């Protein structure tokens, strides 16, 4: 143990415990023929858990941790050791990181790359000792002032090239560490005003950059998935990866819909005006559901607050869509969530994750029961049952024409009457499980 978490014992499943423990998350519980751990595939986010200092727009650091400000390699190495201590306490199978989270930026691209590999040496050693695997790696292409006008969409081609070099180095490390995915989040791939923006050119550049990433994946033999993470705004006024539908349109435009999947965040879905389950259901329908960032927003705030999840009904509906998609393959449940800035103690970070893991476990169990009982799906099939008739199927066939359908409807004297959607009954049904 590095010292920071040394007073905290590894958590165990103990539903009757009065102390720190999992009360609902039992990694070995079998649901739908698979262990709970293998369904949920939990990951800890390095940036919020070990990089965030507790600041906000009106005040600076509130957390006092021995590796802050992590602006030297020695402090970055101490942070890495503390991170793997937390991973062991929680027993998570995965973690995620940005390059900027794990090492201070160097004076050149080469120095930044070397520093990243130096930290990767520590990761590799700790992983070999039984530490968690890497769910995904990614590059921070938004914090440095060079990216104030975007990375792939920057009007300066030198920034595009710098971002390409950074992503290549991060992909190499992700590949080296056996990462299961590589994520691109376009934090500043958007615009503040159309008055100085060539929208068409920026969209083309974003698509070209993504194509280059896919090409490089195949060149190095990376077997994981390339994921894009949608977000509608914040920090930019409008981001080009607004939501699932917007990203899918970009993928289609550049012929990447079979190469790239999505990492979908609950908080980003809310900012886009959607529910989390809507975004997951649409990604499932389009065949691009990859992985999730599990958190929540404060519904009284209009920004991305990245709080740990605490709503079982919300998580149940999310995992219901994931189970309907067949479950995760390379993806998993990453806690892209941070403590509140008044939660100062090491135990706060442990208990935040433990509580969130229990909430997800309860949601998963409810979702599995709903799927097994088939009551929701039965009601859905009944609602669309009329489409199973030969006449209805013929309307969807290649030989159908609008005037042919119209003539048949007129001749038959059709007078369809509304049928109840029974929404409240179905909401009540869901509440039986959660």
TrEMBL record:
Q: Which SUPFAM superfamilies match?
A: Xylose isomerase-like (SSF51658)
Provide GO CC annotations from the record: cytoplasm
Catalyses which reaction(s): alpha-D-xylose = alpha-D-xylulofuranose
Question: Which residues are catalytic?
Answer: 98, 101
Positions annotated to bind Mg(2+) 1 = 229, 265, 293, 336
Q: What is its EC number?
A: 5.3.1.5
Q: Which UniProt keywords apply?
A: Carbohydrate metabolism, Cytoplasm, Isomerase, Magnesium, Metal-binding, Xylose metabolism
> One MF term from GO for this chain?
magnesium ion binding
The record lists the membrane-crossing segments as none
Q: Does the keyword Transport apply?
A: no
Question: Some GO term, biological process aspect, for this entry: which one?
Answer: D-xylose metabolic process
Name the family the entry cites.
Belongs to the xylose isomerase family.
What is the recorded name of this protein? Xylose isomerase
Which organism does this record belong to? Paracoccus halophilus
């Amino acid at each position: 143990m590095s010292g920071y978490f040394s007073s905290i014992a590894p958590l165990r499943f103990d539903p009757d415990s009065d102390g720190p423990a999992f009360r609902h998350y039992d990694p070995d519980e079998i649901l739908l023929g698979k262990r709970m751990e293998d369904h949920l595939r939990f990951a800890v986010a390095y940036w919020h858990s070990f990089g965030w200092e507790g600041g906000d727009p009106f005040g600076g650091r509130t957390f006092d941790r021995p590796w802050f400000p992590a602006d030297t390699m020695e402090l970055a190495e101490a942070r890495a050791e503390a991170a793997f201590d937390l991973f062991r306490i929680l027993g998570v199978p995965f973690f995620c990181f940005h390059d900027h989270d794990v090492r201070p930026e160097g004076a050149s691209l080469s120095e930044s790359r070397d520093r990243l590999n130096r930290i990767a040496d520590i990761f590799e050693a700790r992983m070999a000792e039984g530490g968690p695997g890497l769910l995904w790696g990614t590059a921070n292409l938004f914090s440095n002032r060079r990216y104030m006008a975007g990375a792939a969409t920057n009007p300066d081609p030198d920034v595009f090239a710098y971002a390409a070099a950074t992503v290549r180095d991060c992909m190499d490390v992700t590949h080296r560490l056996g990462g299961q995915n590589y994520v691109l989040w376009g934090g500043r791939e958007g615009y503040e005003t159309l008055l100085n923006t060539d929208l068409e050119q920026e969209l083309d550049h974003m698509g070209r950059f993504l194509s280059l990433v896919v090409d490089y994946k195949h060149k190095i033999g990376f077997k994981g998935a390339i994921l894009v993470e949608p977000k509608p705004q914040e920090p930019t006024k409008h981001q080009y990866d607004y939501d699932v539908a917007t990203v899918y349109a970009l993928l289609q435009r550049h012929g990447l819909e079979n190469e790239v999947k999505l990492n979908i965040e609950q908080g980003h879905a809310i900012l886009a005006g959607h529910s989390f389950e809507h975004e997951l259901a649409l990604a499932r329908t389009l065949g691009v559901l990859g992985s999730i960032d599990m958190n929540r927003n404060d519904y009284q705030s209009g920004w991305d607050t990245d709080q740990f999840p605490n709503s079982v009904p919300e998580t149940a509906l999310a995992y219901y869509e994931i189970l309907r998609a067949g479950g995760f393959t390379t993806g998993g449940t990453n806690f892209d969530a941070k403590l509140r800035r008044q939660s100062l103690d090491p135990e706060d970070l442990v208990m935040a994750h433990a509580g969130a893991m229990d909430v997800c476990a309860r949601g998963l169990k409810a979702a599995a029961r709903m799927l097994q009982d088939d009551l929701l799906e039965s009601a859905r099939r009944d609602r669309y049952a009329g489409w199973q008739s030969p006449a209805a199927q013929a309307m969807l066939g290649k030989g159908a024409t609008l005037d042919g359908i119209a003539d048949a409807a007129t001749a038959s004297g059709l007078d369809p009457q509304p049928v109840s959607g029974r929404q409240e009954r179905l909401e009540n049904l869901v509440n039986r499980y959660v």
